[in-house]
Specification:
This protein is of the alpha+beta class. Helix content is 61%, strand content 13%. The strands form 2 sheets. A 3-stranded mixed beta sheet has the order 1-2-3, with helices on both faces. Strands 4-6-5 form a 3-stranded antiparallel beta sheet. A hairpin with a 2-residue loop joins strand 1 and strand 2.
């Protein structure tokens, strides 16, 4: 065998070794990334990646649950605050009624009138009623003007005790209760007339409380509307076709 032949044989034997070297991962990074130099996925690296995704998803779910729990706690706290505010308002109105009751009891003694004093709460008002005595209508007046004056005096007595303006309502001998029924009936009757005639109709001047009773009654009749016009103390309700 000649020297040339030996050289060629040595060169051919080196080729498989170089090709084998090319099939190995060039770096540790390729192996870690899950793909070797031939493009074949590394199953171990793929499993690690799936595990990481699962951990991230679980973490996101926990964060969402925590946010939902926080929102629920905020809603519960708001509801508790509203309940507490309602209780505070009712307690304040009850206190107003008690102060008014004491004041009116002394007033009745001074005026030498007998009557039973009843305390109640209706919406955002304390209600004080005096009934059961003789000649209590003398404390009302022909159109309720004396009753209105006594109500204002009672409100001032409450304000002096609490430091806050009161919207307390005073009724004597059921004058306001009966007046409410009459005004509600009047509002419905006028609404029916306007609906039939198609012409507007104005009522007599009333207090804001009385006008509200009429407005509520008119609102119960379809096809008509009501509004207030004029200036106090001559402001009145007007009923018109809808």
């Amino acid at each position: 065998m000649t020297a040339e032949t030996a050289t060629q044989t040595g060169t051919e034997s080196e080729v498989p070794a170089e090709a084998a070297a090319e099939t190995q991962p060039e770096t540790a990074t390729e192996a870690a990334e899950g793909t070797d130099a031939t493009g074949v996925e590394n199953p171990v690296a793929g499993a690690d990646a799936d595990a990481d995704d699962s951990v991230e998803d679980a973490s996101d779910d926990q964060e969402d649950d925590a946010e939902d729990d926080a929102e629920d706690e905020d809603d519960d706290a708001d509801a508790e605050d509203e309940d507490a505010d309602d209780e505070d308002d009712e307690d304040r109105l009850v206190e107003e009624g008690e102060i008014a009751g004491d004041y009116l009891e002394q007033l009745l003694d001074v005026l030498d009138f007998d009557g039973d004093i009843d305390l109640d709460v209706d919406g955002d008002r304390a209600i004080v009623s005096i009934d059961g005595g003789d000649d209590l209508t003398k404390l009302v007046g022909r159109k309720g003007e004396i009753l209105d004056a006594l109500q204002e005096l009672t409100r001032l007595a409450v304000q002096q005790a609490t430091g806050e303006r009161s919207r307390l309502m005073l009724d004597i001998a059921r004058w306001r209760a009966d007046r409410r029924d009459r005004l509600a009936r009047l509002g419905r009757e006028v609404a029916e007339r306007v609906l039939s005639s198609g012409e507007r109709e104005a009522l007599d001047p009333m207090t804001p409380f009385e006008r509200k009773i009429v407005h509520d009654a008119v609102a119960g009749v379809d096809g008509v509307v009501s509004e207030s016009e004029g200036v106090e103390p001559k402001r009145r309700v007007v009923v018109l076709p809808g």
